[in-house]
Specification:
The structure is a homodimer of 368-residue chains.
Chain A: H1 8-15, H2 19-27, H3 34-47, H4 53-60, E1 65-70, H5 77-91, E2 95-100, H6 107-116, E3 122-125, H7 132-140, E4 147-150, E5 160-164, H8 166-179, E6 185-188, H9 195-210, E7 220-221, H10 227-238, E8 246-249, H11 252-264, E9 274-279, H12 282-286, E10 292-296, H13 298-313, E11 323-327, E12 329-332, H14 341-344
Parallel strand pairs in A: 1-2, 1-3, 3-4, 4-5, 5-11, 6-7, 6-8, 8-9, 9-10
Antiparallel strand pairs in A: 10-12
Helix pairs in contact in A: 1-2, 1-3, 5-13, 6-7, 8-9, 10-11
Chain A binds a DNA duplex (30 and 30 nucleotides) through residues 7-9, 17-24, 26-27, 31-33, 36, 51-61.
Chain lengths: 368, 368
DNA sequence: CCACGCCATGTAATCGATTACATTATTGAT
DNA sequence: ATCAATAATGTAATCGATTACATGGCGTGG
């Protein structure tokens, strides 16, 4: 078995047929008679033959691989998504090539090259920013149709986008806090210019408006989804006066570090301040108290995106132009949200005496 | 640009040279005269030529890709490692193909096929269990030399292994607890038959013996690195009598959920029980209190493994057979470990009165 | 019995690069 | 000035599959 691996010619020889027949046995078995097909399969078995992918790829002009572009591979939020993508793609005979879009090096050109030199058939991008280098490469390689957005997206390109219903998620978060009696709600956003961050923020603001809540500008603090951002946001928000009683964080990572920082500064969650996150990462369920959050179906996002790409690779281009497929979101109520103290027992805030007058009316305006 | 992409022949024509010359300009520029080289590069520029990887791979019998085999892609512990591997591999012209070794489907055969059909040049495996299918494929493809273990490993194969010094890590953990006065230390292990779990556990037991600590069998509870396992372990350990005052968890995930569960049951960490983890995942620094843990250099592990594989792919097979490269570990002292209450102020345990007599001698035996 | 078409299979061109070998130009030593 | 060695480049074979086209056998309708 140390000798050169068997080629299609060897199989043909053993089976007593032509190379064309062997190739057909591999790619279109129905076109062969039962007898020859069996002969060929036997020969494949005895020789231990495996098709040479490079040769096949060269001839068929396919790569059998797709690229998954991840912004910051180190972010664990993506691992579940990557995992489910991998499941469905590899089950369909595609290899998964992973790239990190935020890698300092020449990664931008590397992505472009993947398409230009034909080493991938398509791409799922978790990064909503598509660089012009990439876009040009896609055009040149005529591969624009083989791209789908997942999680993040850009309206600039006529591509399908698999995403969570971020607006609904934000509304659920606000509604939940309001239902518990909160009227002073702050928001910690994702990174500036990130489409997810924008969606969640604008839906947050709109929903607050619907509930007739006033949201001063400095109650919306800029974050970036990261643990560090959550801690920093806590410092800013706890310094506010009047202090918000509820906080909607655009990611669970920020919510968890926000809570940790609150504790560190002597506040109790949810007693002194309620916090709700977004994502429902695994840790959310195992924190103490459990993190109330908006669940994203990460496995579903990955699966749907992979299936969508597969459909396109098969040529079933369902719809022209951009379209959206939503993955469900859901409120997961755990222990970090509760009625604000001054709502249930006004002035009972053990620390620092009664809340200063806020100047905001506090009508009871619970939505359905 | 919608027409068939330029081939080497087109470039040759534009540059007024032969295809061989163009090819040489690409692969061994030094062998050309300055003038022709420039002509060729100009022609490449004007035509927008990119080499076709499939054709190159077919001819050179290389794939330009390596496979990274991850046990459970969904586990965020691996993302930082994957990220740094990706950095160095893609900087060296290799694509990274990701597989999940615990995926239910025919992934085992899929990995084997990757080698047999020549679609990868080598592999880094984070999974210490190499299946016989995989091993046979590696032998047949004569690729056994192009494999390196990272994090986990198996002594069964003569391959390099990049790993943390798990034994040292466990000793640091024990020493730290002992230095704070703990004499009753429990351990939550990784999954059965996992080599990391075994290393940490045996080093833990040995070190405890060195310190003359008694470790009853039921103080070593079986976990599996996961959040759920940590919570379950907490239930078991808190039910112990006498109750351990310090716990060494074989992963940060388990440590964090262990702590959360302790809290949930009314115990304070570190006041009532000290907990030390292993890994130093990002969350460890942002928990409250910060998780004392043994840091693994995840980025370093990935980088070293990638570099080692690259060296092998270049044919610089430094050493015959198996050898080990250690990535450093370090004790990161944060807030979840402290002197046990009954050590500093015996009997002062606010909850449930004085600790019952343990039956264990408590000599003062602090190591250096 | 013939002609037509279909089915199973074979022959050979092809995908697009690399590279062994051949050829020509150049250099340097004697 | 001559010849060997070396450098620069070209010609064509090659990597290992797929597939267009060709071929021969067989069934069927007239």
């Amino acid at each position: 078995m140390q000798n050169p691996p068997p080629k299609i010619k060897d199989v043909a020889h053993v089976a007593g047929v032509s190379t064309a027949t062997v190739s057909r046995a591999l790619t279109q078995p129905d076109r062969l008679s039962e007898a020859t097909r069996q002969k060929v399969f036997d020969a494949i078995e005895t020789t231990g033959y495996r098709v040479n992918q490079a040769a096949r790829n060269l001839r068929t002009r396919r790569a059998g691989a797709v690229l998954v572009l991840v912004p910051n591979l180190g972010n664990p939020f993506f691992s579940a998504i990557l995992s489910s993508m991998n499941d469905v793609l590899s089950a369909n005979g595609y290899s998964v090539l992973v790239f990190d879009s935020q890698q300092p090096g020449a990664s931008e050109q590397a992505v472009a090259d993947c398409f230009l030199n034909g080493s991938v058939d398509g791409m799922i991008t978790l990064d909503g920013h598509m660089t012009s280098t990439t876009a040009k490469a896609l055009r040149n390689a005529n591969m624009m149709r083989n791209v789908v957005f997942c999680c993040e997206w850009s309206d600039q390109w006529p591509l399908p986008s698999i995403r969570s219903n971020n607006g609904l998620g934000a509304r659920l978060a606000v509604d939940h806090l309001v239902a518990q009696g909160h009227r002073k709600i702050a928001h910690v956003t994702g990174p500036a210019s990130n489409i997810l961050a924008e969606m969640r923020k604008s839906a947050f603001l709109q929903r607050c408006a619907t509930h007739k809540l006033d949201v001063p500008a400095d109650w919306v603090v800029q974050g970036d989804f990261s643990l560090m951002a959550g801690a920093q946001a806590a410092d800013r928000i706890l310094a506010l006066s009047p202090r918000p009683t509820g906080v909607f964080c655009a990611s669970d990572a920020m919510a968890l570090s926000f809570i940790a920082r609150c504790r560190q500064r002597g506040l109790r969650v949810p007693d002194d301040i309620s916090v709700i996150g977004f994502d429902d990462i695994e840790m959310a369920a195992y924190a103490e108290p459990g993190l109330t959050t908006i669940r994203q179906d990460r496995a579903g996002l990955g699966r749907l995106a992979a299936q969508e790409l597969l459909a396109r690779l098969r040529g079933e281009q369902k719809t022209e132009g951009a379209y959206v497929i939503y993955a469900p979101v859901a409120l997961i109520e755990r222990g970090t949200t509760a009625a604000p103290q001054n709502a249930t027992q006004p002035g009972a805030n053990g620390r620092g005496g009664p809340e200063p007058a806020t100047g905001f009316p506090e009508p009871v305006d619970k939505p359905a």
